[in-house]
Amino acid sequence: MLTSRLRKHAAFDSFKFPEFRNYILSRFFFIFVLNMQATLISWTVYDLTKDPFSIGLVGLVEFFPAFITAFFSGYIIDKNDKRKMLLLSIAGNALLTISLCFVTSNFAAQLMHKHAVLMVIYGIVFCTGIVRVFAGPTSFALVSLLVPREYLPNAITWHSGMWQVAAVSGPALAGILYGTVGITYTFYLMIFFMIIAVTGASLIKPKPFVSARQQEPMWQSIKQGFRFIWHSKEVLGAMSLDLFAVFFGGATALLPYFADVILKTGPQGLGMLRSAPALGGVCILLLMTFRPLKRNQGRNMLFCVFGFGLCIILFGLSKYFYLSLVALFFSGVLDGISVIVRSTILQLKTPDDMRGRVASLNSMFIMSSNELGAFESGTAAKLFGVVPGVIFGGAMTIAVAVTTWFKAPGLRKLEY
């Protein structure tokens, strides 16, 4: 058992704490804009190139700087004020959002060739990767400082849930606005939302570094993060499962192609397709908020990864828009359960003075699974074709779940 002293709470107990409320407000609008941004970037890149591989390349461009920076970001986060780091991360992304607003505008289109526009977009995505590797781990490290430890499971559920809610509404709104008012006015609204996110984060009190080991060499500190993860089998197993399962099951990167060529729904349909997995995640969040998993969390997580792979295969085979939505919806339901279990394991097993480093290393796994997964999907589509590439990814996800079931019995039997 991970802990035996976690008390049962009502669904909204974490909101008793004002700083947590401000944090959730800031996190929602920040993630909301990131998901709108991802939808607009993927469609714009596809519209410029009509090439699925170019969409997958977005993932690689974002992954590379994030992977390199992740080795140092955890050390920096652990040695600095968490609230300040969050503010800087959000403000940095706000500047990148303004840059995207300009480069995708009609004015920029008159000044620049479409190939130049594409290169600038890739450059902004490159910078986004650097910002994200600080934003995610800082959020992970900060949330445990906003509520007492016994409230953490409830806070983590809301922490994951706000991500899911933002991931539902962000792509849907982006697709609708793109088709009605155009991309520039959509970015104007996104900039306004980023201002709200900055305001919410600024209302949190400073959370300075308090450990006594302030003079510890950077490389020694980073090595301690690696050593902790390697010797904590539950943490390593959960992170590895996320890495390989999502890496192969990352069909989301190819949604612009499916929306345009196979399902013929355009940017509005793309917004709905991108929202469907997150909508499933929101539904399971609501269920797990009021009826949390009480037993067999590790086993249920592996079942969910297996089912996630089946949903990706169904999506790849589907030629009907609503069937595709249903497949993506249930992939979100299953992924939502495994995300909450993995997040709870990481929070409960990680010491306070190591949260930044562990979260940064975890972000390397997440970036590897999501961004490299997008590149893997684009590459598989290039080599095998789009539909066979998606089916291959779903089958590999199932293989990962089955292999983990037999090779990692400790993770399968995990309870907290």
What secondary-structure arrangement, pairings included, does this model have?
Elements: H1 18-49, H2 52-78, H3 82-103, H4 106-111, H5 114-143, H6 152-180, H7 183-202, H8 218-231, H9 233-248, H10 255-262, H11 266-290, H12 297-317, H13 321-349, H14 355-384, H15 386-407, H16 409-412
Helix pairs in contact: 1-2, 1-5, 1-6, 1-7, 2-5, 2-14, 3-5, 3-7, 5-14, 6-7, 6-11, 6-13, 9-13, 9-14, 9-15, 10-11, 11-13, 12-13, 12-15, 14-15
Q: What does it look like?
A:
The protein is built from 16 helices and no strands. The protein has 416 residues and is an all-alpha fold. The chain has one domain: MFS general substrate transporter like domains (Growth Hormone, Chain: A, Up-down Bundle), CATH 1.20.1250.20. α6 packs antiparallel against α7. The longest helix is centred in the N-terminal third of the chain and has 32 residues.
Radius of gyration: 20 Å
| Straight-line N-to-C gap | 5 Å
Mass-distribution shape: globular
Characterize the biggest β-sheet: none
CATH topology descriptor: Growth Hormone, Chain: A
Q: What oligomeric state do the depicted chains represent? A: single chain
